[in-house]
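Lay summary. Proteins are chains of building blocks that fold into shapes, and those shapes determine what they do. In this project we predict the shape from the chain. Here is one chain we studied, written as its sequence of building blocks.
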Amino acid sequence: MSSFTEELVVRVAYRVERGRRCVEVAKPFAYEVGFLGSGDLVRVPIGAPTDFGSQPRLTWLIDPPFGLNAKADAVHDQLYRDGSRSRIDADRIWWEAMAVEAEALARHGQACAPMWWRYLRYVTVRAFGWRNFAPLIRRPVRRPEVAWGALATASLVVAASAGAWLALVLLLRALT
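And here is the predicted shape, written in a compact code that computers can read:
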């Protein structure tokens, strides 16, 4: 079974990313995908922002965003941010990481997210997560200010010349 390589340590830095308050990872950690010793690691570096589970506040009664699946959520946030894997792979790894985290918590006698809740979160992310997947987010195209200035000047020249032509036509009609 896969595993987390380190404990998750975060720093409360209150960064806002895409309208959500985030904390920063204070100590790098990784998740080993598939099985222990596979060598397939998802690394979460120092300073990586995470909002843990992006879920409505009403559901925090069942599963607080910083609680039962915090490590899996931080790995998922990193996968969505860097886009190093496909979205379906990122979600599959998250599903696996939630199960690993739940098993570890249960082994230590702590409360863990029930299977139906993890499944509900997974299905919801599969349905609506595309909006936050980094490779799919449209970034605004930066156009040079000079181009906008030139366009504004050209439109003023065109408008002025059109106005001049209209004034000339009206003057000629009035004279005839």
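What the prediction tells us: The longest strand covers residues 9-17.
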